[in-house]
Structures are given as C-alpha cells and as structure tokens.
Amino acid sequence: MGSLDRSKKRIQLWKKALVHFALCFVIGFFTGFAPPSAASLFSIGAAERPPVVVVVPAAPLAAAGQVVEPAGSTGNRSLSEISRSVPVPADNDVDPPPPREAAAVAPSPRERLLILVTTTRRDDRFRGAFLRRLAHTLRLVPPPLLWIVVQASEDAGATAAMLRNTGVMYRHLTFKENFTDPEAEADHQRNVALSHVEYHRLTGIIHFATASNVYDLQFFEEIRHIEVFGIWPVAMVSTNRKRVVVDGPVCNSSKVQGWILEELNNDNKLLLGSTDKNHKPPKINISGFAFNSSILWDPERWGRPTSLPDTSQDSIKFVHEVILEDETKLKGIPADCSRIMVWHLNMPSVLTLPFHSPNQGRR
C-alpha cells in the first residue's frame, strides 16, 4: 500500500507540472502575436513616478558650483531638447564639454532659445514670492525658454522644491562662496550662469531677469530678434520715494542716440531736451540689455579678439565692456525705444504695515 500511495503522488506532481508548462506556453505563444503598442501599457507606471533631484557638477570651472535639476520630471522638459546641451549623467562624474562643431543653420527668431538668468540674495525675505511670480510670467512665454536660477547652496533646498512645480524648463545652479558685498555676490552669480552657458554651448539670447522685475509679454518676442546686442529703457519704481525713474537709451529707428536717467512727470510722460541725453553711461542697467550667447565662446564672430585679459572668470565685466565700446552694434527695443516693457521694483528690506502702530503694544 505504501508504494502505491507514493506512485500516485508522483503522478499528481507530474500532472501539475505539465499543466503549468502548458499555461506558460499558451500565454507566451499569444503574447508574441500582440501588437507593439501594447508595450506602452508597461511604461505608464514609469512615467508617473515622482521626479528625482540629481545634483551634478555644472562645469569643471571654479565659478560654476553645482546644478540642481530634476531627472525624468514630466512637469519640466529636459535640457536634452535644447541643441548642444549635455544630458544629466547617471553618476557624479564631470561630463566632458561638447565638441566644437561647425555652426548649424541659424534658427528663425521665433525658434531662438531665450536664456533668462535670475540671481538671488541671501537676506531677501521676498525671494520665494518674487521667484514664484516670475515663474508664472515665464509660463506664459512661448518656448523654447530656459530659466537659470543661481543661489547659495545652503538655501537651495526650498527653492529647488518650488522650481520643480513651476512648469518652466530651468536649471538651478548653486555656489559655496561667501560675500559681504551684495553687488560682488550678484556679479559672481552672473558669472556662474555665464560659465554654465559657455561650457554647455547653449546658443540663445541671454537676459538677466531680476526676480522683482515686471514684464510686458511682448518683450520676450522682441528680444528673440536680437542678432548681437539689444537694449531698451527700464522703468525703476521706488516704493519709498513714490517715483518712477527711466534708465536707458534714446533711440532713432533702433539706433542708439544717447542715454537718459530721468524721472517721469505727473502725466507719466518723459520730456527730453538736448541737454538731458548723455553720450555714454558708466554702467548699463543689468535688466536693460540682452545679447547673443555665442559671443562668450566665439568673440571673433562679432569682431572681438579671442584673447582678452580678465574675461576667463569675469564674463559679466566682459559683456559690459563690449556693450559700451560700440553703440553701432546695439539694437533698440522696441524700434524707437519709446515704450516701457520692463519695470524694476525696488523693494525695501523692511516694510511697515499701514494698520500697525508702534503704540499698540503699549496698551
């Protein structure tokens, strides 16, 4: 009886194995006839995964610290969509610079990449609010557009989380240096951004978009038509002094005729005399110009020598010098510079609430 029971169990095990084998064979046989589009069903889950923040070196330069950007995010398009950009590597190795290739066919003005650089301040209490407001503005600008935000590394966490939800293609650059002079820190951040653009050969129109700026959306379409340098008047609004000062060029059919720094009258009109125009300002408003990024790595194309002192680590100084040395290369925006399209808001470090009285706490 014992041997008979053991033989029955063996027969049952063989039957189960044959049934499993037959089922697997049938499933595999019919799966082979399935259309290729069925593979998309398995990729849906991967597309809905939350974005992963990857920190990689931005460039092998001392000025460019790190890049904080999402990998595989659906809300922000990858920089791989931009020509001559470098995708994020899997590890933290420094990616090599792209090869110097022959110049491709120039895109039409509507297809030109806009590269907007925004610097931040450590002690700015309104930094998050201004960045979010500027992000809402940039979402309305037709692509292609790349927003570069530069920030101190210790403050990058909260900003990175906010940038991932803006829906704007961006790169978040960080640095570790400490500064006591706000102007020196701002110039350093601009050099970090320009070094990143030069290293990755991001061809487009660069504009330094201060977070507190207010823009006319037509402005972004205007600057896409810049060939070398573009310049325009900026209205500086002061909340403390309650006045508006116009800083920028005076143009005649897109040609710069002079420079002004004048206050608007009560009718919001700017009345200029022959003595009000200056020949050349000591420094141009950082929000009042844009330029073709290729001048950073191909200056000979725009009539500049290749070897210039103090330009390897101070690109913003180089840009200012190029703009001021030859006004014939500047293009006024709009055609006669008669329209204000950029407003810069000077916010005080401390705001006094209108309903707050210093005597209220003594009651």
Automatic annotation (TrEMBL):
This is Glycosyltransferases. Involved in the synthesis of glucuronoxylan hemicellulose in secondary cell walls. Keywords: Cell wall biogenesis/degradation, Glycoprotein, Glycosyltransferase, Golgi apparatus, Membrane, Signal-anchor, Transferase, Transmembrane, Transmembrane helix. It is found in: Golgi apparatus membrane. GO terms for molecular function: galactosylgalactosylxylosylprotein 3-beta-glucuronosyltransferase activity; xylosyltransferase activity. Residues 70-105 are annotated as: Disordered. GO terms for cellular component: Golgi membrane. Residues 73-83 have a biased composition (Polar residues). The keyword Cell wall biogenesis/degradation applies. Belongs to the glycosyltransferase 43 family. It is an enzyme of class 2 (transferase). GO terms for biological process: cell wall organization; glucuronoxylan biosynthetic process; plant-type secondary cell wall biogenesis. It is a single-pass type II membrane protein. Its main location: Golgi. Its EC number is 2.4.-.-.
